[in-house]
Write a structure and sequence with these properties.
alpha/beta; seven-stranded mixed β-sheet; six-stranded mixed β-barrel; 32 strands; 32% helix; globular; binds ligand MGD; binds iron/sulfur cluster; binds molybdenum atom; Nitrate reductase; 4 iron, 4 sulfur cluster binding
Length: 866
């Protein structure tokens, strides 16, 4: 049995993982020595072993739908790319990469595109995620430097979480905060979010501000700091910045943000009185048409108050993806050069000399949304997409899909065979997945960790950097891409960061360039800089030419979208606890689907009345761009006038599940980041003619008139269905065509169907006027071992055979599969705290992500009991 230390491939916390491989399979646990997590894992990390199976994987290259060898695929891709470049020039080519690639992959892609193809049209999904934060830091500090570490959070007096649902999205870091609060009861927590999230569980103060209004809140705070006597003259831009802030008194802020004056004052007092403050900010701030200004409004208050560059202080943008930071380091964004350099003449010359590149791109390239617009209008004729699923994650999905459908050459590097994006690919390259690949990632606190392979590569899967290097050879650049392994790529990247760097450039890991292969193998997590010069980061000097930090004048802006009588509601979108983005990996693990298995649309009780919505019923949400179907969840923590849904569902897991079908491509003018969090929509109840649940041994292509969601189940495919047209005849025809025997019966208001092949249950369908209540456990058991006699088969047809275990309810604790029913029962029977629930049922005793929900159930059930 071997044990390998590696890093979790999900969020930017960057937890260390120990993977064990034995005859029994893969087992993972948290690495107790990793400084990001000290042994903890959240539920997604803990379920990593379940994602290492090969079902659904892309294992062989394909060209125009046919499986081919690597040499055929590379040759065809090379010929087609060369011909497009020869005819239309390098600007007709684009790469669209991802913060989920390893640093080595990312470095290789950036080098090929900017240095050798000779255009800077390489952008990444980090444009949808971190680019406002990058702009914020660069404008204030002169470089993209995150000036905080996780320890700062633990030793602070006040932690402000703004636009972050860290309890669900950075769970291990959140648990570190929970623990710090237990050790230090004086540590206070403020959460700023239009909705009451699980993160609010530990908040001393929650400000449910109007969507998009954060700029006003922080500009008003700067006014308070100045009024209380801070010396703002120490910064460039102070006069202009303060001139605007002076107009933002508490009354104006309260009105702009839709908050009470007392709430705003309470926050300002807490900030002023706490000697040390860390502000954590993520997508509620970045994903906005004024996202970079909001980032600077936050940085401004930390600089002006001096709560910066010392332990327990600072403006801390948390990265989302495991290697968003690595992407920023290698210059993966179209607006940067490699090693965090810019397009100024000195940097251009330096990079060109280092690479030996004769046609290095001289100007920035197109940013994500512009890039897909350019594909749509035919300016870009070839795009290579690696490690991201833009058909789901970019705004205005229909336009993105149309653009891809019309693009003469779409290449996709993927680990999964079928995604919404790869359906448009002419050429598909199979990439190594987590557990198979080697390289480095950098987490939110600038800590570089190794990802190490512990599984051999299945089929024809190859490392992403290798695929890029092979393509470089096809295009005639073999000499500059002759690496034999990821270590060589990393050393080149490290050397470039230290090349002619006397401290002018913050990103310097030059000292790592000399690592031997053995040292690289044993590399332990390290925060940059790791320079050859002994020089720590001088955060007070920054990296502007005049060595002064800047306050950036911010005029607060609300959201861009305007609600009106037709589209009266603001739709907010984000993450749920147990899913990762477009679900290609987490969506197939049944344990991770038990918490929330459908696209829920959370509305306030007021809006439920206003729009005649019933909790648990279906609804349609639409904007001028598109439509989405979800299930209504009435949430008192939801601000009236806005609704929330997740960003995860897509055409591989649902019909009409993509939230980005509704979102307009409105972007921040400085960072190019789209406003994914605020879209004006209309919401309507949908009462279909019938609703059904279906389990099938095979994946089905359902007819267009049926609405469906696919859910992970262990042995079979589970679909939730609904429709306005009769479906049973289609289904019977399908089963008959397979040669299966059909058993059907009208049951209540619905029709139920079972299909058998030689005594084996192949498919089961249960329908009703509303969602049919069925016993999933028994049904799944019937797929493993078919009922022995006709009576039991008939009972199965009812969907709720008698004498079976009661329904678990929604799974609250995914680590130990503990359902709501059991938890409520335990509380009714006397459990009064999260601890006793943990002792009795084990729930909440592993990763702790479900503790906010356990607390909510305790509160709710104990109140009912009283
Ligand atoms: N479980 C899980 N975890 C993840 C991911 C995942 O897919 N699943 N993805 C990772 C990635 S790439 C990222 S970027 C991070 C994102 O991490 P987060 O940013 O924490 O996640 P989101 O749910 O996108 O949005 C955070 C919050 O912003 C709030 N918000 C919306 N509008 C506003 C506003 O105007 N003002 C304020 N103050 N708040 C607002 C939303 O209500 C939401 O609660 O998560 C990472 N972690
Ligand atoms: N409305 C709305 N839209 C959003 C957001 C939002 O909050 N609201 N959030 C935005 C944010 S912050 C982000 S980060 C994006 C995320 O959106 P995406 O990046 O599009 O989502 P993923 O599902 O993570 O896509 C990663 C793809 O890479 C594949 N993959 C995994 N590992 C590898 C590998 O090693 N190599 C290769 N070649 N492929 C691999 C996966 O199978 C998957 O298809 O979505 C953005 N879109
Ligand atoms: S907190 Fe993030 S990095 Fe850590 S185990 Fe969970 S998903 Fe992985
Ligand atoms: Mo992200």
């Amino acid at each position: 049995m071997s044990e390998i230390r590696t890093t979790c491939p999900y969020c930017g916390v960057g937890c260390g993982v120990i993977a064990q491989v034995s005859e029994k399979g893969v087992n993972v646990r948290g690495d107790p020595d990793h400084p990001a997590n000290f042994g903890r894992l959240c539920v997604k990390g803990a379920a990593l072993a379940e994602t290492t199976g090969l079902s659904g994987r892309l294992l062989q290259p394909t060209v125009d739908g046919a499986k081919v060898s690597w040499s055929q695929a590379l040759e065809t891709a090379g010929t087609r790319l060369r011909s497009i470049i020869a005819q239309h020039g390098p600007q007709a080519v684009a790469f669209y990469a991802s913060g989920q690639l390893l640093t080595e992959d990312y470095y290789a892609a950036n080098k090929l595109m900017k240095g050798f193809i000779g255009a800077a049209n390489i952008d990444t999904n980090s444009r949808l995620c971190m680019s406002s934060a990058v702009t914020g830091y660069k404008r204030a500090l002169g470089a993209d430097v995150v000036p905080c570490s996780y320890e700062d959070i633990e030793c602070s007096d006040l932690v402000v979480l703004v636009g972050s649902n860290a309890a669900w999205t950075h769970p291990v870091l959140y648990q570190r905060l929970v623990q710090a609060r237990q050790t230090n009861p004086l540590l206070k927590v403020v959460v700023i979010d239009p909705r009451r999230t699980a993160t609010c569980d530990i908040a001393d103060l929650h400000l449910p501000l109007l969507p998009g209004s954060d700029g006003g809140l922080f500009v008003g705070l700067l006014n308070r700091i100045a009024t209380d006597g801070a010396a703002l003259g120490d910064f460039d831009g102070a006069t202009e910045t303060l001139a605007i802030a002076r107009d933002w008194d508490v009354a104006r802020v309260a009105q702009f943000c839709g908050l009470e004056v007392a709430e705003v004052t309470a926050f300002y007092d807490a900030f002023m009185h706490a000697p040390k403050v860390v502000t954590l900010y993520t997508m509620g701030i970045n994903q906005s048409a004024s996202g970079s200004d909001k980032c600077n409004a936050i940085i401004n208050v930390h600089l002006a108050s001096g709560k910066y560059a010392r332990a327990g202080c600072g403006p801390f943008s948390l990265t989302g993806q495991p290697n968003a930071m690595g992407g920023r380091e290698v210059g993966g964004l179209a607006t940067q050069l490699a090693a965090q350099m810019s397009f100024d003449p000195q940097d251009l010359s330096r990079v060109a000399r280092f690479w030996g590149a004769e046609r290095l791109a001289q100007t920035p390239g197109l940013m994500a949304v512009e890039l897909f617009e350019a594909i749509g209008n035919g300016k870009i004729k070839a795009v290579w997409i690696m490690g991201t699923n833009p058909a789901v994650s970019l705004p205005d999905s229909h336009a993105v899909c149309q653009a891809l459908a019309a693009c003469p050459l779409v290449i996709v590097s993927e680990v999964v065979a079928d995604t919404d994006t790869s359906r448009y690919a002419h050429i598909r390259f199979p990439a190594q997945a987590w557990g198979e690949k080697n390289g480095t990632v950098t987490n939110s606190e600038r800590r570089i960790s190794r990802q190490r392979a512990f599984l051999s590569s299945p089929g024809e899967a190859r490392a992403d950097w290798w695929i890029i290097a092979q393509m470089a050879k096809q295009l005639g650049f073999a000499g500059a891409f002759s690496w034999q392994n990821a270590w060589e790529v990393f050393c080149e990247h490290a050397a470039l960061s230290g090349f002619e760097n006397n401290g002018e450039r913050a990103f310097d890991i030059g000292a790592l360039a000399d690592m031997t292969p053995a040292q690289w193998e044993d590399m332990t997590p390290v925060r940059w800089p790791v320079s050859r010069r002994v020089a720590p980061l001088n955060l007070w000097q920054g990296w502007h030419a005049n060595q002064r930090l800047r306050l950036v004048p911010v005029t607060p802006q609300g959201m861009t979208t305007a609600c009106d009588a037709l589209y009266p509601l603001v739709l907010n979108s984000g993450r749920i606890r147990d899913q990762w983005h477009t679900m290609t990996r987490t969506g197939t693990v049944s344990r991770l689907m038990q918490h929330i298995s459908e696209p829920l649309v959370e509305v306030s009780p007021e809006d439920a009345v206003r729009f005649q919505l019933t909790g648990g019923a279906l609804c349609r949400i639409s904007s001028p761009r598109g439509l989405m179907v979800g299930r209504v969840a009435i949430q008192p923590g939801q601000r009236a006038g806005s609704a929330f849904t997740s960003m995860h569902w897509n055409n591989s897991f649902a019909r009409h599940g993509r939230v980005n079908a509704l979102v307009a491509p409105v972007c921040d003018p400085h960072s190019g980041q789209p406003e994914s969090k605020q879209t004006a929509v209309r919401i309507m109840p949908w009462q279909p003619q019938w609703q059904g649940e279906m389990f099938s041994r095979h994946q089905l292509t359902l007819p267009g008139f049926v609405h469906w969601w696919r859910k992970a189940a262990d042995t079979v495919f589970h679909y939730t269905l609904a429709g306005d047209r009769e479906f049973a005849s289609w289904l019977c025809q399908y089963c008959t065509a397979q040669g299966w025997q059909i058993q059907q019966a009208y049951w209540g208001q619905g029709l139920n169907i079972l299909a058998w092949r030689e005594g084996q249950l192949m498919l089961g369908f249960w329908s009703a006027a509303t969602q049919p209540e069925i016993d999933t456990v028994t049904i799944l058991a019937a797929f493993v071992r078919a009922p022995d006699n006709a009576e039991m088969r008939h009972a199965l047809l009812s969907g709720k055979p008698a004498g079976i275990a009661p329904d678990e309810g929604a799974i609250v604790c995914s680590c130990f599969s503990v359902g709501e029913t059991a938890i409520v029962r335990a509380i009714t029977d006397g459990c009064q705290s999260v601890q006793t629930l943990g002792q009795q049922l084990r729930c909440g005793s592993n990763c702790g992500s479900c503790i906010p929900e356990l607390r909510a159930l305790l509160k709710q059930t104990l109140t009912l009991k009283e």
